[in-house]
Structure to design on (253 residues):
């Protein structure tokens, strides 16, 4: 393939732009704020799930507490009623008095047991309410941080998008100055060789694979017309001759 030296040199400009575009797209894919925002969103979702569970348990324990308190009230009311009967003097039968006193004693024990249940339920309710308060505070803090991180992510992404648009416009301008057949070869090689299709020959070394060319290879290139497109024998990328190629002025023909 033949192309004017200036057109070949434009490949290096095009390659620099394409490499810059790769870097920009890599930055867009690897923004630290993206991963951080995802982790924060996951934590918010987890907190929401924990809150639902805790709030459900609070509702259950509140029902349990109300039932326990009703049980205490019922026992207390019955004990009060029996005590009034005992103190009224209306019961004279000794057997009946003995039974009533025994029931009052039994009710007192039952009331004490139920009051212990109420205290235990209240302690559990207090722990669950504290958990709800803690989770609610953590959720507010996490949501605020998520909002701040996503704002930074969006700002960074917008800046990257602007950089990308600038590079794309410059690439279109430079690509228009490269002959169609040479551009087609360049694009084909970019797809084959990790995005690097053209490299400068500087001081006898390929800028693509970084390997030094042999004396025979340099002599072959030196003998090749300046408008002939040459390829690196090792990496097969387009090798663009420059003033620093080490060819003794052949690149300036």
């Amino acid at each position: 393939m033949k192309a004017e030296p200036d057109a070949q040199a434009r490949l290096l400009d095009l390659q620099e732009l394409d490499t810059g575009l790769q870097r920009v797209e890599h930055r867009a894919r690897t923004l630290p704020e993206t991963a951080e925002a995802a982790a924060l969103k996951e934590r918010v979702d987890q907190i929401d799930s924990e809150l639902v569970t805790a709030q459900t348990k609070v509702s259950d324990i509140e029902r349990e507490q109300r039932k326990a308190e009703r049980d205490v009230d019922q026992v207390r009311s019955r004990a009060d009623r029996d005590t009034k009967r005992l103190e009224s003097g209306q019961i004279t039968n000794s057997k009946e008095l003995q039974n009533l006193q025994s029931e009052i004693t039994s009710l007192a024990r039952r009331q004490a047991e139920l009051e212990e249940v109420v205290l235990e339920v209240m302690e559990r309710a207090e722990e669950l309410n504290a958990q709800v308060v803690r989770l609610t505070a953590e959720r507010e803090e996490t949501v605020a941080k998520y909002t701040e991180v996503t704002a930074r992510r969006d700002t960074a992404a917008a800046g990257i998008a602007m950089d990308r648009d600038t590079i794309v416009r410059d690439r279109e301008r430079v690509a228009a100055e490269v002959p169609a057949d040479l551009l087609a070869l360049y694009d084909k090689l970019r797809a084959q060789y990790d995005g690097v299709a053209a490299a400068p020959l500087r001081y006898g070394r390929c800028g693509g694979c970084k390997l030094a060319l042999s004396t025979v290879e340099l002599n072959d290139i030196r003998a090749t017309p300046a408008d002939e497109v040459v390829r690196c024998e090792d990496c097969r990328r387009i090798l663009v001759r420059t003033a620093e190629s080490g060819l003794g002025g052949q690149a300036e023909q």
Residues 94-175 form the longest helix (82 residues).
